[in-house]
Amino acid sequence: MARPEIAIVHDYLTQRGGAERVVLSMLRMFPDAPLYTALYEPATTYPEFADYDVRPMWTNRLPFLRHDHRRGLLLYPLAFSGLRVDADVVLCSSSGFAHGIRTRGRKVVYCYTPPRWLYQEASTYLAGWPRPVSRLVGAAGPTLRRWDKRAAASADMYITSSVAVRERIGKTYGIDAKVVAPAVHPLADGASRSVPGIDPGFMLCVSRLLAYKNLDAVSSAFEQLPDNRLVIVGTGPEGGRLTATAGPNVAILGSVDDEELAWLYTNCAGVVAAAHEDFGLTPVEAAACGKPVAALRSGGFLDTVVEGTTGVFFDQADPPSIASAVRGLLEYPWDSESIEGHAGFFEETVFANRLRAAVGGPGGVPGRWLPEGAAA
User: How does DSSP classify residue 52?
Assistant: First the structure.
C-alpha cells in the first residue's frame, strides 16, 4: 500500500509555545510534509522550523502581522478559506483558523481549543488590544462564529490534547474528539546549569506572568509557609506587580534558558501549578525529573497528574488551599521512579504512534489515549 501524502497546516509561526512544539513533533513524524501557515517569523519561533518546507501564505507579506498576529484576526478566515491543499491527509494544527482550509483529501484537526476570543473569554482575551481591533473583532463575532463552526464541520476527525478540551469541543461544535496527549520534550537534552542564589529544596512555579494564572494566590500561600521558599519562573505583564508584592521567601526569576530550567526542576522539592490549563505541561516536565506537583483540580491537570502517584490536587486557587496542598506534598514519601515512569506516556514516540493511528498513516499503534490513573 502506498504511503499517504501528508500536508500540515498551522495557524501562525510567530512564537515559541506548546502548539509550535506539537507542530515540530508532527514534522519529525512526516519530514517530507509541507507546512502551510498564515505567518512565519523565524526570529520569534523555534529555529528548527528552518529545516522544513514552510510555505507562508499571502498574509505573511504584511510585516505588522508578523510582529502582532492579533491584528490579523479578521483576515485569517479569508486567507485559510482561500487555501486549497490537495494531499491524501491534511493535518491541521489549530486553535482558530487552520481548520478552515479546503482539500479533497482527509482533513484531520488537532485542536488546542476552540478560539477563546470567540466563545469564552473575549473580554479577557481582548483586554489591552488596540481599541479599533477589539471593536472590529467584537462586531464581527457572529460572522466569525458561523465561519468557525462551518470550518469545524468540514473536518473528518478532531483530535485534542486533553479531556477538558474534548468536552469544550463537544459543547462548541457537537464533535466527539479523540484525546491524544502531546509530546513533552526533555529540557536541554539532559544538560543543566545552576541558577545563582538558589539553593536546592525550594518549591517551583513555571508560568507566564498573567492574571489568570493565579500567581497572586501562589505567592500569598507562602506567607503561610515561612520556612519554605518559592521560585517563580516566567515573564509577563504581571511581573512588576508580583515582584513588588512578593514576600521574602519568594523569588521571581523572570526568563531562564532550558539548561537553567532543567536544573530548577531537578533541584526543587516539587512544583506548584494553579491555573486552569488546557493541557498541563509543567506537571509532565516535573515528572520527567522525578518531582511531584501540587496542582489545581481542573482542566488538563486532570490528565497529567495522577493523585497520590505524581502529585496532589487542591480544589480552589486560593492561598489556604495551595498552602495546605504544598504541606501535604512536602510530607508525602514520593517514589521518584514511579513519577518518572508516568512521564514516559508523554514521550514523542508515544504521541507519534497515537497520531499515526488516528490519521491512518503507517506505524500507528492504537491503545490508551490517557495514562492509567488519570482523573479523567
Answer: S
The helix (run of H) or strand (run of E) holding residue 313 is strand 311-314
Grid cell digits, residue 361: 498513516
Q: What is the pLDDT of residues 287-326, one digit of tens each?
A: 999 999 999 999 999 999 999 999 999 999 999 999 999 9
CATH code for the domain in which residue 238 is found:
3.40.50.2000
Other beta carbons within 10 Å of 261:
21
Contacts of 113-121 with C-beta under 8 Å, sequence gap 24+, read: 113/160, 113/165, 113/168, 113/278, 114/148, 114/152, 114/168, 114/169, 114/172, 114/173, 115/148, 117/73, 118/144, 118/145, 118/148, 119/145, 119/172
C-alpha cell at 312: 496532589
Same-domain pairing of 50 and 175:
yes
Answer yes or no: is 373 within a domain.
no
- Structural domain range at position 311: 187-345
My answer on whether 167 and 97 are in the same domain is yes
- Cα distance between residue 285 and residue 182, in whole Å: 12
